Amino acid sequence: ADVTLKLAGTLPEAHASNRVLEDMIAEIEGANVGIDIKFFPAGQLGSGEELLDDAKFGNVDMVHASVYAVADPRIDFQSLPFLVGGADDIRKITQNPNAEYNKLYTEILEQHGIKHLSTVVEGLIGAVATKMPANPRGIGNQKTTLRVWSSQLAKSTMDLLGYQTTTMNWAEVFPAVQAGTIDGAICCTPELAYTAFAASDVGSVYLDYAAFTENQLIYMNGGKWAKLSEKQKEVIQTAASKAARRMSDEALERTDVIMGKLKEKGWEIVTFTPEERAAIKAVVKEKIWPSVADVIGQDFLDRLSK
Amino acid sequence: MLLGLSIFLVVALLIAGVAVPMAFGGVLILIALLGDHNISAFMGTGHWKMNTIIILVIPLFIVAGDLMQRGKIAGPIVAIAELLLGRIKGGLSGACVLASAMFGAISGSGAATLTCIGSIMFPHLRRNRYPEGFSAALLVCASPLGLLIPPSGAQLIYAWLTQQSVLKCFLAALAAGLLLTIFLIIVNFVMLRNAKNIELTKIDGSPFVALGKSTFNAVPAILMPVVILGGIYGGVMTPTEAAGVAAIYSIPVGFWIYKGLTWKIFWETLKESSVTIGVVMVMIFMVLIVSKFLIFEDVPTIARNMIYSVSDNPVVVLLMINVVMILIGMLMDDFSGLVLSASLLTPIAVSTGMDPVHFAAVLGVNMGMGNITPPTAPLLFLGSRVTGVSVQAMMKPTLIFITFAWLPTLMLITYIPQIPMFLPNFFFE
Amino acid sequence: MELADGLPPRFGRLVRKLVTAKLAMSAIATLILPLTFLMVVIFRYILHWDLFAYEEWLLPISFWLYFLACGVGSYQDTQIRADILESYFKSARAIWLRRLCLHVVETLICFVMLYWTYLLLDSGIAQYPYWQKTIALKIPFFVAHLGIFLGVFFMAFYGLLHVYVLVRFGPQMIREPSPVQCKLMGEEQCC
Ligand code: NA
Ligand code: NA
Predict the structure, then answer these.
(1) pLDDT tens across C10-44, in order?
(2) Which of B113, B249, B396, C75 is deepest in the core (most CB within 10 A)?
(3) Which DSSP string corresponds to B340-382?
(4) Distance of alpha carbon B288 from alpha carbon B343, whole angstroms
(5) B41, A54: Cβ pair inside 8 Å?
(6) B397 preceded by cis ω (within 30°)?
């Protein structure tokens, strides 16, 4: 082959997306356009934050991982609560490269020398808890302590919903929920709630807020991308888009099954009617969204609010 | 090729006596020259790898251990161990092992255990005419119990690197620690069976009164594991937070209860601890960078192929993994060896069907042993400093303890998964 | 003998002051680490309040601690090293030569590390205005990187001073116990 691309991923070996990634590699290599791919799965080379840096420096060429606002505060647009409403919105994003959501990623990453290839929306994030909050479908004191990740957006959203929030490293969240140090965490798609908590019999409530998205991107070092032939670019772009779509679709399909499995484990699942969710979203959008104008830029915020 | 050269260079530099972080810096120069990498990313990699709260347990356990030693917290624990075992021949040295194990429940490192227990026990052993080389070696060989018996800095780092449950890893390592305690005590009695001149500890009055009195004195020290482990298991704090609370707890106890600390000593201790922390953490920083760039060179696959080319029988593969870890342990200290082994060898161990939690215990025993196996044996040198006995005089008894206590522990822990996995399965399944 | 004692007096005083300052900063940082975790627990349990995103300022402090203190480690020559071959060097000249070689090699490597750290700072600054910052408190990564740079700088600098002192006094400065003996006797009697 003319080029060997180093591809790095962060999801655990057993995660279904890794099978899709393997197919993507086979598709690119099988197209006989002179590309070989060397795959470093399961966070061997480091976290998502670290890999974006590695891709900028060109030490890895291609990455499948989440991106974080440490690299650029504007990336925090992805943490806007209730930005993505449901399965339909997810399909709009993953099937249309020209969706505003994708264009923002493309524009931001381009300024860091990164070529955005495709977006995977693995699902929508709710809360895992060991007890039922006082006011699960509304806003008000929930008498429940949840771990939030270090994002002002996530924290103020959960504060607004009435939770006591606390910061904790993800590695310590499982034992902390298990020991009762915290009552739960806003953290997880239903699938992650199952694999990370329910499968080990920790936790008993899933609140399907669907407040945030769980995203991964497939992206490339810009310089390396520019050096590829048109034919090679086309093969890679096609394969990456297809993979992202498949990962998102398969994850969506798994959601129903997973919800059933959570119930089998005896979990209570708090779902929201469209009206209930719209009511929460309205308050959150009014109180929280304007606060990020200075971080992600009024221009971006307007484009997303459309 | 690059891999072979890297290994050769790091071994050569380490044996020549080049400081560990610079030895790994040397390997990184080699990687920069021969590999295809953007060197601007090198130091940033170290920052990314260590930019996590979890890794702070190492400095926290270092400063906690130093404060405990200066605060004389170990005194009453030693007194209890002495009362329990001290009145039979070889009992006083057996009590050293017991005290190290008990102290392991409050300290997170082998070095703290050695300085705290060794500085108190060695004078007692000498007074009762125990052979000096033997006594110092025993203290050294028992001190890694500090990192096998939870809480353990090493297990926290392993759990973080391999994404395992901290509590499960703690419990797996605990089994290894208890087994080692038993082996060490047995070997101790066997070795002393023909020793002459040993004086037995005399206790005036009723032993029960004495035991009650020592236990009372020990309450503030015993409260420490209660606070730490109770705090973790009872859901008050995470293991990292507990390491911080332990360090703070030892300050008032050291000042006002055991009265080992004064403001001057406190300040000196902080300064000394900080230098230890700096030296240890920068070393880990460099090892983490080199580990990552060796992964680019496919080290995990190459190592796996090499091991599997000899045999794909799990028994043999595990034996070879252990041999590799013993070699790593001979050359490196526990933390840098741990980081290297956890990143590169865990996948191979798991490929034999071993549970990563089980491997936590195997790795723990290996890294504990690495601390006392020459040529690079930080605890052996520290032991020599604490007791004033030369390394040479400690060598023979140390090798006996390694052969008849450490290696059997390692083999049992490796090949009988029921031992390390009993507690994790009991509590989590 | 301390390293600064082998330097010209005025320069030695300056070096000593720098070490004192670094030690004081490191000692305070060493106390800040556990205090922060105590506060985290107290805040969560007693005050029902969150020390939000505390890791974002605690981690840069810890990097300054690691690297400045490691610089002091180089000054005190207490870096972790294997001393297998040490006992084979008996004469003052042999011991002196071995120490000189080790310090020269270590110092050269440190200067390369310093160059890599400079590249880290440089590539970070070049990303202006989109510097890497922590998500919640927007603390630039530059802060931690600068600590790393200063630490490596001092490691290289003190390495150079060790070489200078070894060359200046020659083998006759080896009357004192070797580092191994230092370890045996306890640092206090040594230095
Ligand atoms: Na321990
Ligand atoms: Na060793």
Answers:
(1) 999 999 999 999 999 999 999 999 999 999 999 88
(2) B113
(3) HHHHHHHHHHHHTT--HHHHHHHHHHHHHHHTTSSSS-HHHHH
(4) 9
(5) yes
(6) no
Smallest Cα distance from A176 to chain B, Å: 6
B370 CA to middle of ligand 2, Å? 4
User: Taking the CA of residue A221 as centre, how many other CA atoms within 13 Å lie in the half-sphere pointing to its CB?
Assistant: 20
Distance from C-alpha of C67 to C-alpha of B387, rounded to nearest angstrom:
31
Mutate which of C22, C25, C31, C37 to disrupt the B interface (most B C-beta within 10 Å)? Answer: C37
Q: In this structure, are residues B143 and B109 in contact, taking their beta carbons and an 8 Å threshold?
A: no
Cα(C45)–Cα(B241) distance, rounded to whole angstroms?
Answer: 13
Whether the CB of C143 is below 8 Å from some CB of chain A: the reply is no
Q: Is the pLDDT of residue B65 over 90?
A: no
Q: What is the DSSP string of B182-238?
A: HHHHHHHHHHTTT--SPPPPP--S-HHHHHHHHHHHHHHHHHHHHHHHHHHHTTS--
The mean per-residue pLDDT over the stretch B282-287 comes to 88
Chain-chain contact of A57 with B38 (C-beta, under 8 angstroms): yes
Asked whether residue C120 carries a pLDDT value surpassing 80, the answer given is yes
Which residue of chain A comes nearest to B289, CA vs CA?
Answer: A45
Residue B300 has pLDDT above 80, yes or no: no
Q: Which contiguous run of DSSP H or E holds residue C14?
A: helix C9-42
Tell me the pLDDT band of C80, cut-offs 50, 70 and 90.
confident
CA distance B156 to B57: 8
Distance, CA of C147 to CA of C67 (rounded, Å): 7
Return d(Cα B428, Cα C1) in angstroms, integer.
56
* Chain A residue at shortest CA distance from B342: A44
Judging contacts by C-beta atoms under 8 Å, the chain C residues touching residue B263 are none
- Integer Cα distance of B344 and A44 in angstroms: 9
122-141 of C, contacting B, C-beta below 8 A: 122-124, 141
Please report which helix (H) or strand (E) contains residue A107, including its range: helix A100-110
Chain C residue whose CA is closest to B275: C69
Spatial separation of the C-alpha atoms in residues C53 and A137, rounded to whole Å: 28
Between A167 and B95, the more confident residue is B95
Query: What is the pLDDT averaged over residues B102-125?
Result: 86
In percent, how much of chain B has pLDDT > 90? 35
User: Looking at the complex, does the CB of residue C139 fall below 8 Å from at least one CB of chain A?
Assistant: no
Chain C partners (3+ C-beta pairs within 8 A): A, B
- How far apart, in whole angstroms, are the C-alpha atoms of residue B127 and residue B136? 14
pLDDT of res. C186: 45
Supply the mean pLDDT for chain B.
Answer: 87
For residue B198, the model assigns a pLDDT of: 79
Question: Count of residues for chain A?
Answer: 306
Please check whether residue A130 touches B, CB under 8 A: no
- For B300, the closest chain A residue by CA position comes to A44
Q: B100 C-alpha to center of ligand 1: Å?
A: 9
Quick one: tokens of A274? 């469209």
ipTM of the complex: 0.90
What is the pLDDT averaged over residues A123-148? 92
Q: Which of residues 150-189 of A touch C (CB under 8 A)?
A: 150-152, 155, 164-167, 169, 181
**Number of residues in chain C:** 191
Measured between beta carbons, the chain A residues lying within 8 angstroms of B43 are none
Confidence check: pLDDT of A293 > 80: yes
pLDDT the model gives residue B333: 67
Peptide bond between residue A41 and the one before it cis (omega within 30 degrees of 0): no
Phi and psi at residue A63, to the nearest 5°:
-135, 145
Position C189 pLDDT exceeds 80: no
Pick from B278, B331, B384: CB nearest C66: B278
